[in-house]
Amino acid sequence: MRPLRLLVFLVAFVRPSVLLGQAGVVNARGLGYQVQYHVRYLGQVEEQTGMLAGGEGWLRLGVIEVGGRGLVGKLVAAGDATTLDRTVRFSSAWVSLRLANAASIGGVIEARRYETTLGVSVWQLLGGRARLSPSLGLPGLAGVVDVTYFFSCKAPGLAAPSVALRGEAGVAFAPGNGPIVLQVAYRFERFDFGDSGFGANATAARLEQGRGLVAGLGFRLGR
């Protein structure tokens, strides 16, 4: 389902009376992602590390939430002269439907741009997202579990992946239930592209797996 169709479906699914008269909630924060990537391709194993920086923001009106995220940075090869450094830019947008105060589901569209001295590769992804943020019993403290499964992933020179997913688990804290919010989470992502075709049309298998800590500091306006 295309992102525009997904948005139309979600809006049509929710009764207009649910949205009318609802005050909006705005969230925004800066992000830092300390990541380690493991890449296996053409019989070679590559390790890369880096710090990605960026931000995210979203608006919630009633039970509908619309937001976006961007991260940029450089992945540096770890001790192997044959491995190329990569400059990366990740951009995503999502639409979600809140099922309860601490749960939501929705759709995500994402673009990933990788640049090396050999050229540029851009991945286009589309997936479904589920998020839980239950209270942990202390004022302003909540757990965070965020899982995205990409059912469509187009990457130049690679076959469709058998696995394409991302998950985060951590905590968010708003001191005194105030507007300032700090979040720390562990992120894991995996893209497993199989080999495909024969001869000149053959594509080699490729595994990309990333993991690391994501820290965010921002604000929340509204309830």
Walk me through this protein's architecture.
This protein has helices at about 5-15, 15-20, and strands at about 25-40, 45-60, 65-75, 85-100, 105-115, 120-130, 140-155, 160-175, 180-195, 205-220. The longest helix is centred in the N-terminal third of the chain and has 11 residues, at about 5-15. The chain has a 10-stranded antiparallel beta barrel. It has 2 helices and 10 strands, in the order ααββββββββββ. Helix content is about 5%, strand content about 65%. The relative contact order is 0.17. The protein starts with a helix and ends with a strand. By secondary structure, the protein is mainly beta. The protein has a single domain (about 5-10, about 25-215), classed as OPCA outer membrane adhesin/invasin (Lipocalin, Beta Barrel). Mean pLDDT is about 90; it is low at about 5-20. β6 (about 120-130) and β7 form a beta hairpin.
Please state the CA-atom Rg, rounded to the nearest Å: 19 Å
Output the CATH class name: Mainly Beta
Q: How many structural domains in the coordinates? A: 1
Structural class: mainly beta
Distance between the termini: 31 Å
Q: What's the mean pLDDT score?
A: 88
Shape: globular
How many beta-strand elements? Answer: 10
SSE string, helices as H and strands as E: HHEEEEEEEEEE
Helix content: under 10%
Annotated CATH architecture: Beta Barrel
**Secondary structure tally, helices:** 2
How is the main sheet built? Answer: 10 strands, antiparallel, barrel
Low-confidence stretches: 6-21
Strand content: over 45%
Fourth-level CATH superfamily: OPCA outer membrane adhesin/invasin
Query: Looking at CATH, which topology would you report?
Result: Lipocalin
